[in-house]
Design brief:
Helix 10 links the parallel strand 9 and strand 10. By secondary structure, the protein is α/β, with parallel strands linked by helices. Helix 5 packs across helix 6 and helix 6 crosses helix 8. Helices cover 34% and strands 16% of the residues.
Length: 374
């Protein structure tokens, strides 16, 4: 087993109270784990906007193949309630700068929600354009001098948090302040609506989109009100109820792949997750909604990847319960002729209990790295 080396990186300060730690406020740092030699030919970074990837399944296999891998955590580790995607770019930028000092070639590994992050980063590193967040807060991406990477790997990649939640929102919610409010005619978990017809699914998708837009409109109005006060308030907490209601969780014929019923969270009971107290996007600030969850987010994965120029390795896990063939097609279209594509047959979203598939993924990454270095 490789010994993991702790990496601590200085990062610029961000929004007020983005961390409850006074230590972070006075001396902002992010932390990562480096597997493999601290210098060499190829170094990889794997990162998620909020999840802790320091125990990621690829660290050990890639290190054994001579590809040192830094699993980097953002300042929002395990807490996306105040997460600003533009701020995460600055965290990732510190990681890329560190790797550039130690490795000839640097690649970005975008796994799950990290896929959109890596695409967003590379697009802004190649052509910086952002000067403010979707909430209107200033952030100097143009002046951050983000260093571009040499290639990107997309594996089991979500197209982005705004795209994801727009397909997961429960369209049957009628009152955003009441977790039990419901329009039964739009409830995918109501057996009276089964089997799901094409017309029903179309109404669900329309309802999800309209709900997302309503929340964004309410957030924008509230932000304006708070910031126009005599003593302005910059942000506010909010709850988004019922965020796990994608028809694809309960009907395998929609966007068909090798997945099992239930999505990829919990015990396979998506309704339980939908009403649960700790689900994706359940707790968020107004500014975090605008940056990561709203359709005004800057962080759509395929849209950003299309703006980049580097080679891309694209791996589809065919039994993924939350990344579907339509998502894969969006990614592929964005890559164009830069794409090298493989299917990981029967691979679930986390490759849980599938060590042979982890080895297959590592082998493909190693072979691709050799190609882009020749």
């Amino acid at each position: 087993m490789s010994v993991l080396q702790l990496v601590a990186l200085d990062v610029p300060s961000g929004a007020q109270m983005e961390s409850q730690s006074g230590l972070f406020k006075n001396n902002p740092k992010i932390y990562g784990a480096l597997a493999g030699k601290p210098n060499g030919k190829v170094g990889a970074i794997i990162m998620h906007p909020t999840s802790n990837f320091m125990g990621h399944y690829l660290l050990e296999p890639l290190a054994q193949m001579g590809i040192s891998c830094l699993a980097l955590n953002s300042r929002y580790i395990n807490n996306d309630s105040v997460l600003i995607m533009e701020q995460v770019l600055l965290d990732l930028g510190a990681g890329v700068k560190f790797m550039r000092q130690h490795f000839e070639t640097v690649i970005l590994l975008g796994n799950s929600g990290g896929a959109a992050l890596m695409s967003f980063y590379q697009a802004q590193a190649e052509n910086p354009s952002i000067t403010q967040t979707p909430a209107g807060d200033l952030i100097n991406i143009r002046g951050a001098n983000l260093l571009p990477a040499d290639g990107i790997v997309i594996l089991a990649g979500h197209p982005g948090r705004s795209h994801l939640i727009s397909k997961w929102l429960d369209a049957s919610v009628t009152n955003e302040s009441d977790s039990l409010s419901i329009d039964s005619a739009l409830d995918i978990y109501n057996e009276k609506n089964h089997p799901l017809t094409e017309d029903f699914i179309e109404r669900i998708r329309h309802g999800q989109l309209e709900r997302s837009k309503r929340i964004t409109s309410r957030v924008q109005d509230r932000l304006k009100y708070l910031r126009d006060l005599k003593e302005p308030i910059n942000d506010e907490a909010m709850i988004v109820y019922r965020t796990y209601a994608d028809p694809r969780f309960i009907d395998l014929s929609i966007d068909q792949n090798d997945r099992k019923l239930g999505g990829n969270r919990g015990d396979g009971n998506p309704r339980f997750i939908n009403y649960g107290v700790n689900s994706l996007c359940r707790y968020t600030s107004l500014t975090a909604w605008m940056s990561q969850w709203s359709l005004l987010s800057n962080a759509d994965g395929p849209d950003n990847l299309a703006k980049t120029s580097v080679p891309v390795l694209h791996l589809e896990y065919t039994a993924d319960g939350s990344v579907f063939p339509s998502d894969i097609k969006r990614w592929s279209k964005a890559m164009g002729n830069r794409e090298e594509f493989y299917q990981i047959k029967r691979g679930n979203h986390y490759l849980m209990g599938q060590p042979e598939l982890i080895s297959q993924v590592a082998d493909l990454i190693q072979a691709w790295c050799k190609k882009i270095n020749n």
